[in-house]
Specification:
Elements: E1 2-3, H1 6-15, E2 21-24, E3 36-42, E4 45-49, E5 55-59, E6 63-67, H2 75-85, E7 89-94, H3 106-110, E8 115-119, H4 120-125, E9 130-132, E10 137-139, E11 150-152, E12 155-160, E13 163-169, E14 179-183, E15 188-190, H5 211-222, E16 230-232, H6 242-264, H7 269-274, H8 279-285, H9 291-307
Helix pairs in contact: 5-6, 6-9
Bound molecules: zinc ion (ZN).
Zinc ion (ZN) binds at residues 97, 99, 174, 193, 202, 234.
Amino acid sequence: MIETNRRAFLQALLTGAAGLTLTYRTSGQGRGPAPITATKLTSRVVALSGAGGNVGLVIGPDGLIMIDGGLANRASDLAQAIAEVSPRMVEVLFNTHYHFDHVGSNEYLGKGRVRIIAHENVRRRLGVRFENPAMGRTMEPLQEVGRPTETFRERGTLGFGPETLEYTHTPMAHTDGDAFVFLPQANVVHAGDLFWTGRYPVVDYTVGGSLAAMAATLAQMDGVGDEATRIIPGHGAPGAGKAEMRQVRDIWLAINERLEAHAREGRSADDVVAAAPTRDFDARVGVRDAEGFVRQAYGGVLARRAAR
Ligand SMILES: [Zn+2]
């Protein structure tokens, strides 16, 4: 990983190979928030990591599209990092779902009248306060200025210079309002939190999420693009390939099968945690303590059974 200044990054962005990774220190050295890392996926698509969920940046001839906006307390750091990547202004912000670590730039950019596009359930969720046992917290609404200005139900297309955004809603997967974005010219997918690498996923079963549906969504995404398609996960290193996505899907399916078996036996969440249903996958995924994930995923299994 290379630490750099603006001039070096712009030079590298213009001339460097795809896959290049550069890191900014936005708040000096040492303690403070995590640095923001930029990964060049194509000459017009850059992923920014380190400020919440991964951010996709699409560089158009006259402006930028931002896919997800990280954490609210990192919104100005993200804006600074984006200014290092391109002098153009953000014209459109796309939200892959309603979680706070993906909509943190909504109010910041909404005040500048940036268009905000999301599934209609994202706008609905961002307008109310509600208790979320799956996430273990109260979900707070955004100010009206930060809520999506344009919503969709199933899918949509947005032309942006030489790139096109094709976005597709996947009902009841990680949440009830997820969408993934495919950029066919760049051959890049921004998966939001439908795909995770290097850790187990969050399963927001309070709003209809389940591991089984998330695995099914990965199978659906497998049909988008081709073998060369690069994927930006919601969390984890940007630029994963289809093979890695299939491995993740297989692990999720295997764990889900075990959780379903526990549910059929009527076991409590504590008993399931004690049975360590992820143990043989933890090293491969890169996780030491999977308890939180097991409780969430099992909660999703129980919620689905209760709804049947
Ligand atoms: Zn999420």
